[in-house]
Write a structure and sequence with these properties.
- It is a single chain.
- This protein is an all-alpha fold and 261 residues long.
- The protein has one domain.
- The protein has 9 helices and no strands.
């Protein structure tokens, strides 16, 4: 398969996050029950894909490079390293405080919390999609026969990732264009990773680098799910809706990963 077609397939997979962003638009941002369920759904997507797919992909890379014992230790170390990294980054971001506004102080704080959650989620998913895009691109070049089903599977599981980004952005800003825009931004990291990684970083990339990146990403996404998305979901609509959304999100991501085994 030519590089142009491989890049086009990677681009289409990345842009599918925009479909997830569009899925957030029919409901009003102020609907607290929908917000709670959607934030829980987003957390479920990120938790499942991190622990079931990304972590074990990292372990596979690192065990193949370092051997079973060292590779396993490296995977766990990089995973918790990702948690420590995002925890440190969060400490640099000010906690939301009420400002002068026409809304109530509680509403003002909530809006700032949701925009913060949305931006951090977009960042985590973009970081995840960057090496994934490079891996997809290279696999399309090396194994054309499996390229289309692999890209299709990635596109399907990118849809709920786009929703994970769009929901808190829409709740915080009320702007449909910003919600879809940030969802698309997180997905565009996939073709960006394919292009920049292939042209610039290819000589430096090996299985060890891929494995460490994926393990760090898994840690980041797990931390954001438990520290940002689930608490915000419970605050918005209560424990039951948050957990229900969580379970549905995990189920949707599980099915998306099973479709092209």
């Amino acid at each position: 398969m030519g590089t142009g077609m491989a890049f086009l397939l990677t681009l289409l997979a990345g842009l599918s996050t925009g479909i997830g962003g569009l899925a957030a638009l029919p409901r009003r941002a102020a609907n607290q029950k929908f917000l709670a369920a959607s934030l829980g759904f987003s957390a479920g997507v990120m938790i499942y894909v991190s622990l079931v797919e990304i972590f074990f992909k990292a372990k596979e890379y690192l065990m193949g490079f370092f051997g079973q014992k060292t590779g396993s230790w490296c995977t766990v170390a990089a995973f918790f390293g990702g948690i420590l990294l995002i925890a440190f980054i969060e400490r640099l971001i000010p906690e939301p405080k009420a400002k002068e506004t026409t809304a109530s102080p509680v509403d003002a704080v909530d809006q700032q919390k949701w925009i913060r959650a949305g931006l951090l989620t977009a960042l985590a998913i973009a970081i995840h999609n960057f090496p994934e895009g490079l891996a997809t691109f290279i696999s399309a070049l090396q194994e054309p026969g499996v390229a289309i089903p692999v890209v299709t599977a990635i596109a399907i599981h990118n849809i709920p990732e786009g929703l994970a980004v769009a929901v808190p952005i829409l709740a915080a800003t009320g702007s449909k264009s910003k919600a879809v825009g940030f969802a698309l931004f997180s997905g565009l990291a996939e073709p960006a990773g394919a292009l920049l990684g292939y042209l610039v970083f290819r000589p430096l990339l090996n299985d060890a680098v891929f494995g460490i990146l994926f393990a760090v990403i898994a840690g980041i996404m797990i931390f954001l799910s438990f520290d940002e998305l689930l608490p915000d979901a419970e605050h918005a609509g209560g424990h039951t809706l948050a957990i229900l959304g969580l379970m549905v999100g995990m189920a949707v991501m599980a099915i998306s990963l099973l479709l092209f085994l």
